[in-house]
Amino acid sequence: MVTLEATVECKEEEYFLKINVEQGAVTIPLSDDDPNAVKGAFNKLIQRLRVGEFTIQLDEVGDDLFSMVANEYLTQLNREIQEVYSQMKEYGLLKPVA
After folding, report:
1. The dihedral of CA 91, 21, 26, 57: what is its sign?
2. Which H helix or E strand runs over 98?
3. How far apart (Å, rounded) are the C-alpha atoms in residues 47 and 67?
4. Could you give the angle at the alpha carbon of 19 between the alpha carbons of 17 and 21, nearest 5°?
5. SS3 label, residue 72
6. Which of 2, 28, 43, 80 could form an S-S bond across to 54 if both were Cys, CB 3.0 to 4.6 Å?
7. Which of 35, 37, 38, 50 is CA-nearest to residue 81?
8. Could you state, in chain order, the average pLDDT of each consecutive group of 10 residues for the chain (98 residues)?
9. Which tens digit of pLDDT belongs to each residue from 63-82?
10. CA angle 30–74–4, rounded 5-degree value
């Protein structure tokens, strides 16, 4: 199983969880309520999941609130990823191994 690295980034006083995926970064807003951005990020993660199972690990967990929130968020997201992967495997939705 592959481990993808994630970081907490701040741009113009807004915080984001940035997950480094082979096809490009997946960004999830932490300080803004943007359901479309979250939905888009999850779609990208599901597309990546078709290639193979993975977990996401925060590169560095700081003492700040957003780092702690991101770390907890990733704990829950990793559980969801494992469940979705199992369901995709059960229904034959994974890409065939070459």
Report:
1. positive
2. none
3. 26
4. 160
5. helix
6. 2
7. 50
8. 95 95 94 95 95 95 92 97 97 86
9. 999 999 999 999 999 999 99
10. 110
